[in-house]
Amino acid sequence: MKKILLALAMFTAACFFAGCNEEQKSSAHPDKVTVMIYSEYIDPEMLTDFQMKTGYKLQLELYEAQEEMIGKLQASGTSQYDVIIASDVVIQQMIHLGLIQPIDTSKVPNRVNIADQFKNASYDPTNSYSIPYLWGTTGILYRDADVDPMKVSYSMLFDAKQTKGKFSLLEESRSMLSMALQAKGYDANSTDQKQINEAVEYILQAKKDPHFLGFDGSVGGKDKVLSKMDWAAIVFNGEAMAAIEEDSTLQFAIPTEGSFMWVDAMLLSSKAPNKEGAYAFMNYILDAKIGAQLAKFINYATPNKASLEVIDEEFKSNRVINPSKEEIDRMVFLKDPGDAARIFDEAWTIVKTR
Asked: Is the pTM higher than 0.85?
């Protein structure tokens, strides 16, 4: 708790000194870098450190779910943001919508620190649009020290006979539908209408359970489990680790039916008012020591091979942050659904309205 209060105090101070509420002084000579980012997804110390090292004030615009982020960009335009941090699964969609532009990689020399497994990814095969920020997994955070994390099934939430307490599902359409597909024994990337319909019915079944408390962002789900409002919630592993650090009786599981890994990447807004500042931020994050600091503060794995050389072994061996081979073997990366995105959108509308 002290760590959280200290972080909040630092964040408030950092926002003040970074001019979180200041207007840009000049479009010709911008003095700030505006980053759209998940909440609680950067070490507050980095706001002031970045300004000291680059001269740019760092302004954060927060969001909780991918759908919210894309909606904001479409509604208000992309000229208000320089860098957008988004999950791999929506990057192709953002390219098609004209929300991001190619990155001049010559302006990001620390790009050499990116580990090979995060290059030429399916969501950006030419490495033109994205630079990895952090990577992680999605699973179930729950309050039961007697349940082996390696034996947890989705039925813990979706089967009313096995649910031991109140629970929340994740407020992200593609993530939640893909988990339901896996729970039914299907490919997480399936675009088969019949299989997606079954996934919808599976979630609707869970909604009927009196233990169901609703859909939450990962931070909200984590907070509910910590406060004992929830017995379990679907969250990202970084939030799970933060919760476990506060309450060691909590557990985090990658369900036996599978889950998925994801990469959150830094993207250049299509109408970024401060491209040079955006590149400065990307290069800053890819510094070996800064990348290690970010990973340890946020509790996510780093795609920065140089950072791995300075991170301690205890962090690297933590299975919540760095899953075991057995867990990795039952996870996949979500793929851009292409034209089938419409099917997922329609399915999620049914999930939320029934």
From this structure: no
Residues of the chain with CATH 3.40.190.10: 2-135+262-316, 137-261+323-353
What is the dihedral angle through the alpha carbons of 193, 204, 262, 46, rounded to the nearest 10 degrees? 140
Q: Under CATH, what is the fold of the domain 137-261+323-353?
A: D-Maltodextrin-Binding Protein; domain 2 (3.40.190)
The single-letter DSSP state of residue 322 is S
DSSP state, residue 236: E
Work out the number of other CB atoms within 10 angstroms of the CB of residue 10. 15
Bridge partners of 76? none
Q: What tokens appear for 30 in the block?
A: 């911008």
- CATH fold group of domain 2-135+262-316: D-Maltodextrin-Binding Protein; domain 2 (3.40.190)
Radius of gyration of the chain (CA): 20
Residues 124-160 have pLDDT tens digits of 999 999 999 999 999 999 999 999 999 999 999 999 9
34, 78 Cβ separation under 8 angstroms: no
CA distance 235 to 138: 6
> 349 with 202: CB under 8 angstroms?
no
Residues 26-63: pLDDT tens digits?
A: 445 689 999 999 999 999 999 999 999 999 999 999 99
